[in-house]
Amino acid sequence: MVSEAFCVNRQDYQHAAAKTNFAIPSQFSLLTRYTRGISSMGTEVVQLTRRGFGQTSRRDAWWVQPLVAFIILTAFVVYATWAAFQNKYYSFGNYLSPFYSPLLYANSPHAWIQGTRPWWVPGFLPFSPALLILPFPAGFRLTCYYYRGAYYKSFWADPPNCTVGEPRHSYRGERFFPLVIQNIHRYFLYAALVFLVILSHDAYKAFFFFDRNTGRQNFGIALGTVVLFVNVVLLGGYTLGCHSLRHLVGGYLDRLSRAPVRKTTYDCVSCLNRGHMRWAWLSLVWVAFSDVFIRLCAMGIWHDVRLL
Question: pTM for the complete prediction?
Answer without folding.
Answer: 0.80
